[in-house]
Design a protein that fits this description.
The chain has 18 helices and nine strands. By secondary structure, the protein is of the alpha/beta class. It has a five-stranded parallel β-sheet with strand order 2-1-3-4-5. Strands 6-7 form a two-stranded antiparallel sheet. β3, α10 and β4 form a beta-alpha-beta unit. α2 packs across α3 and α2 crosses α16. It is globular, with a radius of gyration of 23 Å.
Amino acid sequence: MNQYRRIKEYHRQLSQSVLLAGMTQTEEWGKRREYAYTDEDILGMTIDNVLAPALNGFVVWVLHQALEKHIERLYFLARDGYFMYRTAREYVRAYSLPIECRYLYCSRYSVRIPAYYLDEEKALSYITLGGLDVTVKKIYQRAGMKEEQREILYKEALLPYDKNRQIPRREFGQIRDKLRKHELFMKFMRENSRRALPAYEQYLSQEGLMDKVKLALVDSGWVGSMQKELEQSLQRLGRLDSLTGFYWGLYEIPVGMDRSFYHTYFFSPEGEIREKTVFNNCLFETIFTAPHGMALGYQKYGEKIEPVLSVMQAERAEKICVMEKRFAAWQKRFFKQYPGKSFDELAKSYGQRQTFKAATKNLVLFMHHPTKEEAQVFGEMEFTDDVLEVKGNKIATGISMRQSAWYEGSTTICSKYPEFNIALCTAYKFLLYRRKKWRYMRREYIT
């Protein structure tokens, strides 16, 4: 489908919703059949017609859920929660909602490192987790090793690979055994973990997570591990209440956690196989991110604990800032379009089937059947599935499902028959998610 026809289709979907019908843009690029679309055009029209309606629908749902559950404070987790946080603050301000929104600088890495020495087997499982491009260097970085410690371990030849060579997935189990038996590696891991714990716990207390208020987390989702990690951290500090989490979607929840505290918007562990099949969580994370690096840990500056952030490429940060302005402009237009509605009326309108369907249908079209222009513009953005979120590859790279984090984008760019390849990919993902659902349900039944 060419870009002009795609815009018309986006507009047709949005017109099905009374709430979103007035938000379709009638700029010149939306009127003409023949137009040399720039990258800025593609970025803008995708945000206006696809990403902003989806983001705002999710945020309104979160806020409405929070009001119904009498939650006083929402913590939006870095970095997937950045746009959600910025959007939610504007709704709270515009409608004077009795909810406080906060942004929590955290990552799987910054939360797990301080707890490594408390459960070494779990730590080794995290450190040797599979991924698209896992190397010895990444394994040592995951373990929290400083540069000088890594150099010592390289000289010891602990692992029989070049430090930058990709490790075959089948060998992670053997690597875990080697690490467990190596006294120096374990000594470094314990020391670094113990050293990281005090600042991490002080940061959680400083940010109010130990306050006696009813609070919840907001994040993209997928497996809900951050909720479990943070809950365990707070329990060590003395907080007895279970954490509640609101997510775009979850494929599963951590073993031993109470399902009633995990709330989903688009898909849940128990169902929505079709929604999972046509959705791409890698692309979601790539787009809905923050213009700052990931949290590597925490450090005391004067009387305050500050997050230590990795360096983000200036070009990437600039692009995210451009997107942020576009999201803000869409929300501002939306408030002008519907100035008379109460928040309860607005939430009910967003929750209506035709509005939810319009927003999510456009998101599915974009993710699962992108135009070549969309695939090229968004496919340039970087993605990594590594725990450390170090520099990755373009999200639409290569032409195989193993190489590309957004296969539908890659095949649209590279293949003569993208629809056929996407159909094969869809069948594969459908069977994969059906199997995952069965395994999850079996696990829950047994436990």
